[in-house]
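stuck on this one:
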Amino acid sequence: MSKLKRDPILAVSLALAIASCFLIFPDEKYASYINWKTLSLLFSLMAVTAGMKSIGVFDRLVNALLSHIHSLRLISILIVLISTFMSMFLTNDVTLVTLVPFTILLFNETDSKGLRNTLIMETIGANLGSMLTPFGNPQNLFLYTTYGISFSGFIMFMLPYFLLSLMIILVMTLIVSPKGETGQVQTSMKGPKMDYLRFAIYLSLFFIAILSVAGFIDHIIVFAAVIIAMLLLSPHVLAKVDYSLLLTFIFFFIFIGNIGRLPAVSTFLKSIVTGHEMLTGIIASQFVSNVPAAILLSGFTDNGKALLLGTDIGGLGTIIASMASVITIKQYSRLGGKTGKYLITFTILNVIALAILTIFALSQGIC
């Protein structure tokens, strides 16, 4: 119950699933609702990244990259770029969970304008950088597997939008990044002692998972390999997997599956979504966040790529458009940061970036 209170998206998905069960009584078709491939791959990637995080891989990498820089502006730009590129492989959530505490440690003044702007830009970087790969965020992996998009086709479709996003991120960061020297910054951070054997195993599992996403290895093999490796090496890491996200997927699968069996409702929703996948993805993301929006809307359109783009750039905008954004503001507020100023700046920068990307997509004939 306490988990449901802390995770409103999980609570909503559960409520919708239960309500739909009164409309379509549970039967043998329920099992077909679940996209087991998405769930197994998502679990495998989360478990492996949790394992690498547990031995301090990412902390050490970021610290090594930042330890010899003497300009606040360069530090801000670099950490935003690290966030953008890390999210392609580790998901936006994992990237921000790793980088936000590190960024806060870098700046002595917890409510400084420089810290606030850097946190906002690294959040935008994580949300936009994650669009480029099928495993960059949960909705990408779901839509990639649901619509059977090829690995190369996914990258090539998203590449122009990623490159434009990268330009937006760089320009915005240059404008809002702090000035000064590293006399105001701490550039050292101790992490757990590195276990090179575990690192080699986790890295191997990560590459195997990527090969599975690309279609070269069966996802069941990867799932089994990850489970066995974690049980033998670090069983405690399994507890760090975000099971609430997996449950959210399952509950939404049940809801969408049941709604799809109600002809009148399904036809009505298809009439709204079809032909406007990107725009409905953007709008829905502003209110329920992009992961649930992708799952909900996928049941009513065959245009997976337009929906993919809509929910990816739809992660910009409101603070809940991407739940990864909530990670940053929660940690900032715990340190006494002024969330009012944060939200104003966050919203302005997000809306500008969202508007640019939406206009560009519309100019390409995607709506």
